[in-house]
Amino acid sequence: MIGNLNHVAIAVPDLEAAVATYRDTLGANVGAPQDEPDHGVTVVFITLPNTKVELLYPLGENSPIKSFLEKNPSGGIHHICYEVEDIEAARDKMLASGARVLGDIKTGAHGKPVIFLHPKDFTGTLVELEQI
Ligand code: CO
């Protein structure tokens, strides 16, 4: 059912340092920081030839990545995102399989419909599914 890897999201405690690492050390194509108040994050998109990396930095007091950074002070992989063709069909399949879907279908950072799946049901990794 899942298609391409859309992105890997990495929560970072220092956005400028992370940008410098990806831009200067790794030589990646790094975009400008974008505030996403609806998602409680500032995001930097890194475009690779076959996928994207998203650096996530907390924005606001209720940022969903704040507790992640408290547990992982140096940062770390927060979630991975796979593409699906039909988000409602994907959600229904997940629920029918007994997997926990976190919340409802939302609009993700790219303006596309997404769902999030519980890490305990997916080998310890928070999974995002995005309709392409
Ligand atoms: Co994402």
Question: What report would you give on this structure?
Answer:
The chain has helices at residues 15-25, 66-71, 87-96, and strands spanning 5-11, 29-30, 34-36, 41-47, 52-58, 76-84, 101-107, 113-117, 127-131. With 132 residues, the protein is of the alpha+beta class. The chain has a single domain, classed as 2,3-Dihydroxybiphenyl 1,2-Dioxygenase, domain 1 (Roll), CATH 3.10.180.10. Strands 1, 2, 3, 4, 5, 6, 7, 8 and 9 form a nine-stranded mixed β-sheet that branches. Strand 4 (41-47) and strand 5 (52-58) form a beta hairpin. The protein starts with a strand and ends with a strand. The protein binds cobalt (II) ion. The site of cobalt (II) ion has 7 residues, from strand 1 and strand 6.
What descriptive keywords fit this protein?
132 residues, alpha+beta, 2,3-Dihydroxybiphenyl 1,2-Dioxygenase, domain 1, 3 helices
Q: What's the SSE blueprint?
A:
Blueprint: E1 5-11, H1 15-25, E2 29-30, E3 34-36, E4 41-47, E5 52-58, H2 66-71, E6 76-84, H3 87-96, E7 101-107, E8 113-117, E9 127-131
Parallel strand pairs: 1-5, 6-9
Antiparallel strand pairs: 1-6, 2-4, 3-4, 4-5, 7-8, 8-9
